[in-house]
Design goal:
four-stranded parallel β-sheet, Glucose Oxidase, domain 1, about 575 residues, globular, alpha/beta, eight-stranded mixed β-sheet, single chain
Length: about 575
């Protein structure tokens, strides 16, 4: 739809600007005070640019320039671009964890979209939690929305080899702790790492979510893999800006795109990419916002049929930018087409079938075919049992085959402080059969469910050549991490889940193929331990932290707030009363 065809369309922003009364006067004068003429907003759709730029977030620090490219596209198509900032969440610097604040950011986005005269919004996110927070907020507000992600950073070069931000660091950290790398060499690594802005260049959580935005149909095809500093990233910004204006005129909303088919497609893409386990939590939360019935059982079902097609670290060898040169996410989706619902509508206004790559992958070392995958189906597995009644996850594609069916005795760490204090103690009773257990690291226990799930291998075992153990926790782990780690155990220990009852020496059995995680302790003994259990004191007593503890749900429900699930009111109904109190607010 062209702007000239918009004469009869009821733009949401017109309720602010069209009236020849005091309210219209006040609203128009607010823009005139910024230098806009009346021609700038007469009948033009207002396109919000939701920017998570922050100097605390290296993944997103280039977003001012990216927002300008989006602005150009909006102006080219005849829209009025108005930018607003939101909370920004940065993995490296934000403590205790960005996950604690994902829901807060989503509320920031939702309430801004509801309260302001927005006809459509462009979401600009990059670092791990900024992408799902913006999607969740926009889905709840349900105004027309499209996203552009920030793109991967340039790879570092260390001793002639391309390195990512996380995956390679974890390997070198083990080398340092085992005495295979000197402190001086580690300083060289630090100097080489992180050469540019942009999100992690491996298939970490940010790269995974960028890909899934395409899988969900919430951005333009090919947008995910373009590097942060590449000129094409800014050209994509213009394209997204133009499309946002068209969305405003067409009225296509997230609720029409984020359907059960879209989530099935995104989950299939997640498994094929060897993507981050964190994405599962975010997809569960997003589905809850739009009323889609998604659970771990469905994710496990889709995982069992989907092989690994993308050869990117940590499950593979390459970096995310290499996917671009092999054909991008559209090429991956083309390979996956027999497993997808290609009738699913996207923000382009077209079904997914029309957006797939025209030809097969251009580099079979990066994107494999469905007939000849890099790994068989089941790269992500859901396990449950007496130790995880509501389920847990293991990234099988990044685990050790010999540990996928394993029995061993528990070595229990009460919390992250206990882990740090004892993991390298030479007297720690641990061997290569042990199962490391960390509790009080979940949504309420930590709080915020930090990325503590990749428990380090004890130094004495590293020196003995042991490079993996079964590790179990109610925490998450970085998407760049690897190892035989069982994560997101639900219910968590802090709310009385079975993880709270495990003691040193207890026998634990992991059977990934059978989908089981069991604690070999009698019911009578567990009942006695339950009776003696003292719940931990809450970590917050005021402010947002207290709200979080009161309302956060468990990992199997996406760690969203209970009061944010389900479809919200039609944004056209303006539940806050659009024109109320205008005099007192002027």
């Amino acid at each position: 739809m062209k702007l000239s065809e918009n004469k009869n369309r009821d733009l949401r922003s017109a309720r602010w600007f069209a009236g020849n009364d005091a309210s219209g006067f006040i609203h128009r004068s607010a823009l005139r005070a910024q230098g806009w003429s009346s021609e700038s907003f007469k009948g033009r759709p207002v396109i919000a640019i939701c920017n998570s730029w922050s100097e605390f977030v290296n993944c997103n620090v280039h977003f001012r320039a990216l927002a300008n490219s989006v602005r150009r596209g909006i102006l080219q198509e005849g829209g009025l671009p108005l930018e607003f900032p939101t909370t920004s969440l940065g993995e490296q610097l934000m403590k205790p964890t960005t996950m604690l604040y994902r829901n807060l950011m989503s509320m920031d986005v939702e309430e801004s979209l509801r309260a302001y005269p927005v006809d459509a919004v462009v979401l600009i996110g990059g670092c791990d939690k900024t992408i799902p927070a913006q999607l969740m907020g926009a889905a709840s507000a349900d105004v027309p929305a499209i996203m552009i992600t920030g793109g991967p950073a340039q790879p570092g070069i260390f001793r002639g080899r391309q390195i990512g931000v996380g995956t390679d660091l974890w390997h070198y950290m083990d080398d340092l702790r085992a005495g295979r790398m000197t402190a001086e060499e580690f300083d060289e690594l630090e100097a080489a790492a992180g050469p540019s802005s942009g999100h992690c260049p491996e298939m970490g959580t940010a790269s995974t979510l960028s890909a899934l935005v395409e899988g969900l149909g919430m951005t333009l095809p090919g947008a995910a893999t373009v590097p942060a500093l590449h000129a094409r990233r800014y050209a994509v910004g213009e394209d997204v800006g133009r499309r946002a204006v068209q969305l405003a005129l067409e009225g296509l909303r997230p609720s029409q795109v984020l359907t059960p088919a879209a989530f099935d497609n995104a989950i299939t893409l997640l498994i094929a990419c060897g993507g981050s386990t964190n994405a599962v939590i975010h997809l569960l939360a997003l589905a809850g916002r739009v009323g889609v019935d998604l659970d771990l059982a469905r994710i496990g079902e889709l995982a069992r049929r989907t092989p690994l097609l993308v050869n990117v670290r940590p499950a593979g060898e390459h970096l995310f930018e290499d996917v671009l040169h092999a054909g991008g996410i559209p090429a991956v989706l083309k390979e996956l087409a027999p497993l997808l619902d290609t009738t699913a509508l996207t923000v382009t206004g077209k079904p997914l079938a029309e957006l797939l790559a025209k030809r097969a992958s251009e580099d079979r070392d990066v994107i494999a075919s469905l007939a000849d995958p890099f790994q068989p189906a089941g790269g992500l597995a859901v396990v449950s049992g007496t130790l995880a009644p509501d389920g847990a996850l293991i990234k099988r594609s990044a685990a050790s085959d010999h540990l996928l069916h394993h029995q061993g005795n528990a070595v229990v760490f009460e919390n992250i402080e206990d882990l740090i204090a004892r993991i390298d103690d030479p007297d720690l009773e641990v061997d290569d059969r042990s199962v490391l257990v960390l509790r009080n690291a979940g949504p309420r226990g930590a709080p915020g469910m930090p990325e503590w799930g990749q428990l380090p291998i004890p130094a004495k075992l590293l020196r003995a050549g042991v490079d993996d153990l079964v590790r179990i926790s109610d925490a998450r782990m970085s998407g760049t991490a690897f190892g035989t780690t069982v994560l997101h155990v639900a219910p968590e220990s802090a709310v009385g889940g079975p993880l709270a009852l495990v003691r040193d020496g207890d026998r634990i059995e992991l059977d990934v193929e059978g989908g089981r995680l069991d604690l070999a302790v009698s019911e009578r003994e567990l009942s006695e331990r339950t009776a003696a259990l003292v719940p931990p004191a809450p970590k917050f007593e005021r402010g947002y932290g207290a709200l979080y503890l009161d309302h956060v749900m468990q990992a199997n429900l996406g760690c969203d707030f209970d009061f944010l699930r389900g479809r919200s009111a039609d944004p056209g109904s303006e539940p806050y009363g659009l024109l109320s109190g205008w005099v007192g607010g002027w």
